[in-house]
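User: Here's a protein and a ligand (S-adenosylmethionine). What would the complex look like?
Assistant: Let me lay out the input and then the predicted complex.
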Amino acid sequence: MPAATLHVVATPIGNLGDLSPRAQQVLREVAAICAEDTRRSAQLLGHFGIGTPLLALHEHNEQQMAERLVARLLAGESLALVSDAGTPLVSDPGYRLVRAARQAGVRVSPVPGPSALIAALSVAGLPSDRFAFEGFLPAKASARRERLGALAGEPRTLVFYESAHRIDESLADLRAAFGDERPAVLARELTKLFETVLDGDLASLHERVLADENQRKGEFVLVVQGVGEDTDAKLAEGRRVHAILAKQLPPSAAARLAAEITGAPRKALYGGGSGE
Ligand code: SAM
């Protein structure tokens, strides 16, 4: 008998046709499937006529379940791990179980497939040779702004997950931290009926989201271009200098001087949407 394996299986992020034949086979053959929300996964499995038993594994019971699951694996039963949608462990539970299995010497093997992160990056048309996945921004405004402040000088493309009820606030905070002109792509409801991929700069994306209620519905991935070596760095520096000068000078004079000092375009500093 081959050694037991913990299979980490990606599932669709919207379109059920994206469950690969190998994923179906593995889910059919394992002794049990660990799922974040068993009711949701039961619907997916039902669609494919897969009757494998489901076990709940979520962030609140993962630590305690991990031990029991590893015992089953060591006893020779293969298991699968799925999340509600996409790839487990990507802004989803599972790393404690995977770590426990690996530490116990159990084979852990991926069945790769959909992930909103990669799907969004693949259609964004922004530099993608290097990128940084930031997951969800903090829910609290102060923590969110602090995080964005720390990321404003990041040269790699940034990828964020966002939900419908915070997309407006997050875009507003991104504009304040990164500037209105930063190129970005908002990918919504990927692989679903109302899939939309909007591109432009942060200001235009935010305005489109505010103007159309439908653009605030569903699930989002926001892909934001990193700071370019030349223009963006100048702009960031111009904004910093402008903010200091504007404490003592009228905004237009502060913008003129900040532009002269840093080489940033004056127009982008004066009324440039930094919220100052
Ligand atoms: N593990 C999943 C993956 O690999 O994509 C992500 C799970 S995370 C809890 C859920 C978030 O992923 C959503 O809030 C949204 O930001 C993003 N997401 C999931 N499905 C999506 C879709 N079809 N279109 C756009 N974003 C999606």
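Summary: The first strand starts at residue 5 and ends at 9.
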